[in-house]
Each structure stands twice: as structure tokens, then as C-alpha cells.
Amino acid sequence: MSHRVARGRVWEYLTMSTARPIPAYVAKRATSRVLGGLLTSLILVLAGMANAFAQEPANSLKDVQVQALPGNRIELRLKLAQPASEPLSFTIDSPARIALDLRDTSLALPARRKDIGVGVLDTVLAAEASGRTRVVLNLDQMVPYQTRVDGNDVVVLLEAPGSQGNVVAFESAPQKPQADSGSRPVAPAGQRAIENVDFRRSETGAGRVIVTLTEPGTPVDVSKEGGRIILNFAGTNVTDEQTKRLDVLDFATPVNTIDVMRVGGDARIVVAATGDYEELAYQSDGVFTLEVQRKPEEKVADKPTLFSPDRKYTGERLTLNFQDIETRAVLQLLADVSGRNVVVSDTVQGNVTLRLQNVPWDQALDIVLAAR
């Protein structure tokens, strides 16, 4: 056999071997594996894109502008990319700080710290976590302040040092209707009214002034003048029958009289108290409560309460002013302030309106838990 013939047969054999058809079940299995791999990769990519879109905040903080106003006042504007919503705010007296939480907002500032040095305002710090941005104003001393929404801006007005009054309830400037941001707006003036004013004596001898409001979002300003505690309900109606003096001296509490009056378009309640006392103001839904308690003596109360001497609160003092926000959000904020881990059950639901002035954070936590 010649080399040429042998070489031709070998080539024919190789050609027949490589052209042999692949069995159907083998091809089907290989195709399934390829398609399965591609489908898995596609699902992972889509899931990653969905998570990215779900976690991306709807708004962003672009700039912080500060302007000095006449009378030693300061206007701070937090400029956002989209229409702003009501922030959560609280204060800490030592060191003097005002904190604003912007929900569903990312941080887009060129720097997290801005040195101001205007009046009582030293610096502005900003940080982002869990889909929200917190702005902290570091002050030389605590001053009254007001907050409002103006389009895409959150405006903070710092009053002059020594000004009377406390934090004013959050009110939004008139603007076009927007989608629900998850927080009920302050009720318009003229639709707010006081339904009832009641007085009770607690088991520990504290006097409780209980004011029932038609709207939970009624702005309330609490201030002290001498031995009087003044509650001013902005743009709130009070009937002629309700404008009177309540003599509660016989209840044996620090409270002697309660005067309900109308001042312009506001309702005002003046609580006259005597002795060495401390007051606590808080609100749950449409019920605002002012509790006036004599400062505890050496003797321990039989039944522990929020004011009992044996119930000692050591947390950092803060002032909270929340209107109709989720209870879970308040608990999360207290967890951030305290630096503690707080586990909130799925059964915790509903909103709460809460005003606390200069109270330890652990006492604020007790009040929230008692209210809900």
C-alpha cells in the first residue's frame, strides 16, 4: 500500500469521526446549563439594580447658606434638590446643639463640616446614614429657634441670645400640593380649637393640666415667667364658656390657678404655681398634658413614677418637638442619641405627637413607651 493511499484513509477516518452527530440528550443538557447560567446572572443583575433603586433617597442636600439678620438673629437655609418635607428636630443643652433629621435625603454637600462663626452659630456638621441626613448646628449657647419649609429649602431661624420662649412648632410655608411625604401637615389656623381643659391630681401629688385639642398638629409654645407657666396655642379657637379661671388650690398640688383666655387669634392658658417645682410638657395625639410636680425630697415615693426620687434618669438632656410622626421613627432617634441598640417589634405602629423640654433621653423613652 502506498503512502498516498494510507494517508487518504486516515484523513477519511478522521473526517468521519469529527462529523459524527451529537446525541440529542447531550445537546439538550448542555443548552439547559447555558440558559440556566444566563438566567441566574440576569436575576442577580436585576436584583442588584432593584436594590440600588430602592435604597437611593428621593432627595438630596445640596447647600447650606447662612445669613445674619437684624437683632442678632441668624437665618440658616438647607437647600435641597427637590421640594423639602418637615424635618425631625431636637436639641441638646450641653453642649448646645440643634439637630435636624432630613428623611429620605442623601448628602451632596462638598464638605461635611462648614465653619460659620456668625453670632451664636459656630459650625454646621452633616452626616448621612440609613437613607437620611442629619444636620447638627453647634452653638455657643442654646437659643430659641423656628423652622419652616420654603419650597426646596428648610429654613431655620435662630433667635437672639436672651430671647424669651422656646421652640415653635413646625409650620410649612404655603406651597403647591405635593405627594404625601408620610407626615401630616400642621392644621390651618381657624380649624384648630380647644375642646376641653381639665385638671387632675396624680398619685404623687403632681398637678396635671390636660388640654384636649381638635387637631394633633396644633403649634404649642411653652414658656415660663416667674411663677407662671404659659401655654400658647397658635391660631386656635377657644369659646367664651372656656375663657375663665379655674381655682384648683384645694387639690393640694403646686398649681393654684389656671386661666384660659383668648389673645388675638391664639388661645392661651396661664398656669400659676408656687413653691419649688418642676414641669414636664408632653403630648400624645390630640391630648396635650402639662404636669407640675414639687421637686422630690429625701423621702422615696411608695410607687415609682416618672417623677419619683428613686427613679433616676442619667441620660443626656434633650428637647423634642415632634408632630404626628411614626412612633418607630421617634424610637430610632432616641436610639441614635443614646448610642444604644433599640429593637422595635413589628407590633409597634401608629403616630405620636410629642413635645418634651430639657428631659433626659431615658425619661423621654419612658414617656414614649407609656404614651403608646
Detailed description of the structure:
The chain has 372 residues and is α+β, with helices and mostly antiparallel strands. It is built from four helices and 23 strands. It has helices at 3-18, 24-55, 327-338, 361-371, and strands at 59-69, 73-80, 88-92, 97-103, 105-107, 113-118, 121-129, 132-139, 145-150, 153-158, 171-172, 192-201, 207-213, 220-225, 228-233, 236-237, 245-247, 255-263, 266-273, 277-284, 287-294, 317-326, 351-360. The strands form four sheets. A seven-stranded antiparallel β-sheet has the order 6-7-8-4-3-22-23. The protein has a six-stranded mixed β-sheet with strand order 5-1-2-10-9-11, with no helix packed on it. The chain has a five-stranded mixed β-sheet with strand order 16-12-13-21-20, with no helix packed on it. A hairpin with a 3-residue loop joins strand 1 and strand 2. Residues 1-8, 10-19, 50-54 and 165-189 have low confidence and may be disordered.
